[in-house]
Amino acid sequence: MKTSIATVSISGDFREKLAAIAGAGFDGVEIFETDFLAFDGPPAEVGRMVRDHGLEITLFQPFRDFEGMPEPQRAKAFDRAERKFDVMGELGTDLMLICSNVSPLALGGIDRAAADFAELGERAARRGLRVGYEALAWGRHINDHRDAWEIVRRADHPSVGLILDSFHTLARKIDVETIRAIPGDRIFIVQLADAPLIAMDLLYWSRHFRNMPGEGDLPVVDFMRAVAATGYRGPLSLEIFNDQFRGGSPRSIAVDGRRSLVALMDRVRREEPGIRIEVPDMPDRIAVEGVEFVEFAANETEAEELGALLSTMGFSLAAEHRNRDVAVWRQGKAGGINIVVNTSQEGFAHSSYLVHGTNAYALGLHVADAAATVARARALGAETFAEQRGAGELSIPAIRGVGGGVIYFIDDALADVWNVEFEPVEQVGSHEARLVGIDHVAQTMNYEEMLTWLLFYTAIFETSKQPMVDVVDPAGLVRSQVVESPDGRLRLTLNGAESRKTLAGHFVAESFGSSVQHIAFATDDILETAARLAQLGFRSLEISPNYYDDLEARFDIAPELVDRLRKANILYDRDEGGEFFQFYSRNFGEGFFFEIIERRDNYAGYGGPNAPFRIAAQKRAMLPKGMPKTL
User: Fold this and answer.
1) Which of 20, 25, 127, 274 has the greatest number of beta carbons closer than 10 A?
2) Same CATH topology for 288-424 and 437-622?
3) Where does residue 525 rank: exposed (0-12), middle (13-18), buried (19+ CB within 10 A)?
4) DSSP element (H, E) containing 289
5) pTM above the 0.90 mark?
6) Residue 345 burial (10 A CB sphere; 0-12, 13-18, 19+)
7) CATH, domain 437-622, list 2.70.150.10, 3.10.180.10, 3.30.428.10, 3.30.230.10
8) For the segment 157-204, what is each residue's pLDDT rounded down to a tens digit?
């Protein structure tokens, strides 16, 4: 599988783009004409730069308003094409993209367009070049790949082929199965892009909201399965117009791009087993069996404060590392909830503390095969992580995660780490409060990072994404999207902050980067848990009394239950599947907090309608003493 990406897809000047594309492992690059024209060197220099990076130029594009023009515009179009052929010769590429005509002067007509392409094909062939025809979704006469193919078929010239772009086909909801009838050798290149489902003008949608395959909502896998069935073996190229990408890190966007292509073709290979597809060998997407642990980096003073908070939630100090300054706080047996607190004065945890302060820098995920998980992650461009291990310590596979943190992988062969590396601490009495597991982990990041981590999780793990929702903060919106496994054993909420005035933005700014902002523990009886935590000295986040006055009317809840919820500061939600209860700790540090939840029946959400009330309460609690508690 040969991978390519258009220069328009990433930010930076031309040199920065090429360095990022090559560094991400692409084989080729599409030269977008605007990028070429903005460069201050001649075409031959551009060609040398591309080849010096180990890349090839897969396409020069776009050439506009060619077919079906009246005279004298027709003759001028051929003259323009000849000049572009001169440039292509100096660049060292043989393929040019011609997009369907949008000019109001275009006459239309399949045979007229086919005749124009037949003549252009002759001119291209004399120079050893090829032209590919693409149907723009907003083309004046041709906006469907089926009509574009018919023009190419009637032109009947070996230097004239079809170019397919997933966005143009899928945006118009054209049946992708029609692609299977096109001979693969007549498709010159395939361009791929995804996009969120937004009802808007096709051109504006395409120019501003495209994203990488797997990051949006279009059925790109179905499109690519149909392309693979044609026998096409040429380059797969990304053409992404996205305002966010234009301002992002060239390296990060390029890495995301290649990851998206490899993950896409791996999935196509598995869903179309009878078709030969060249893709890096890797295990299938990995099923996550649960969150094994969450690890905090802290200094000794803040570790004591964190331990005191955990004690009020029913956790006990259960074990200490035999060689390192690492403690395990646990509720339930070893397979229950493990919170690890690392106060080591060296190593990665200490570095994380120095940069971010006390933070949940590492997740441990229980998987069926830890080595296979890292193998898939590595094939998809993830950065592996390893630290020097002491005598008798297990080597636990890991990769770098959100905000430079770490994700460890524990399988059954490594599950004895708690006995091998840790010395049990004698328990005095029981503090447990019926917390039964980690329901979800919330990671907060700058909004422009969200698509990166969405793709990261869905490409590596057997997960799916839920629709993005807006969380209303008094200071602005926070975008939130859920990634979860089919059985709910792994649930991650990704929260993207655009303004540092929001609670999420404040957390990112004060923590110096993206990180876990809250952990939600599950209970099987939230009222009993709340009562037990109150006995242990837990101080819940205080919710406005006005919330409860409205709650009874909105949901027709018995007054007795509303009164119990009010006294415990428990929030409530309901959907067609069931009921949801949640309450919160007060903030720890610069915005980190814990949540305790109970799902009843088949409630599928995360209490999103309650977020404004929770955020308002948290902001009131963060105000300096003596200030009026108004927002």
Assistant:
1) 20
2) yes
3) middle
4) strand 288-297
5) yes
6) exposed
7) 3.10.180.10
8) 999 999 999 999 999 999 999 999 999 999 999 999 999 999 899 999
Tell me the C-alpha distance between 181 and 146, whole Å: 10
Q: Work out the number of other CB atoms within 10 angstroms of the CB of residue 74.
A: 18
Q: What are the b/e assignments for 346-370, b being 16+ CB within 10 Å?
A: eebbbebbeebbbbbbbbbbbbebb
Beta carbons within 10 angstroms of residue 598's beta carbon: 23
Sequence-distant (≥ 6) Cβ neighbours of residue 576 within 8 angstroms: none
Report how far residue 121's alpha carbon sits from residue 142's, in angstroms, rounded to the nearest whole number: 19
Tell me the pLDDT tens digit for each residue of 271-311: 988 777 788 899 999 999 999 999 999 999 999 999 999 99
- How far apart CA 311 and CA 303 sit, in angstroms, is 12
Length of the chain: 631
- What average pLDDT score do residues 481-509 get? 93
Helix H or strand E encompassing 52? helix 43-52
Second-level CATH architecture of 288-424: Roll (3.10)
Closest CA to 14 of 35, 33, 34: 35
Q: Please say whether the beta carbons of 473 and 504 come within 8 A.
A: yes
**Confidence label for 335 from pLDDT (cuts 50, 70 and 90):** low
- Domain boundary assignment for the chain: 3-271, 288-424, 437-622
Helix pair 73-91, 110-126: axis angle to 10 deg: 40
Q: Amino acid identity of 2?
A: K
Q: What distance separates the 2 farthest-apart alpha carbons in the chain?
A: 94
Q: What was the pLDDT predicted at 577?
A: 94
Give the span between the Cα atoms of 552 and 420, in whole angstroms: 52
Label residue 629 exposed, middle or buried (CB < 10 Å: 0-12, 13-18, 19+): exposed
User: Nearest 5 degrees, angle CA 454-CA 456-CA 458?
Assistant: 65
SS3 107: coil
Phi and psi angles of residue 20, each rounded to the nearest 5 degrees, phi first: -65, -40
Which of 77-91, 153-167, 301-315, 500-514 has the lowest average pLDDT? 500-514
| Average pLDDT score, the chain | 94
Which of 102-111, 350-359, 527-536, 617-626 is least confident?
Answer: 617-626
DSSP state letters, 479-526? EEEEEE-TTSSSEEEEEEES-TTSHHHHHHHHTTS-EEEEEEEEES-H
Q: Give the CA distances from residue 319 to residues 119, 362, 420, in Å, rounded to whole numbers and listed in that order.
A: 79, 18, 11
Query: Residue 597's pLDDT band (boundaries 50, 70, 90)?
Result: very high
Residues 200-226 have pLDDT tens digits of 999 999 999 999 999 999 999 999 999
> What is the CATH number that goes with domain 3-271?
3.20.20.150
Q: Helix or strand or coil: residue 122?
A: helix
d(CA 401, CA 364): 11
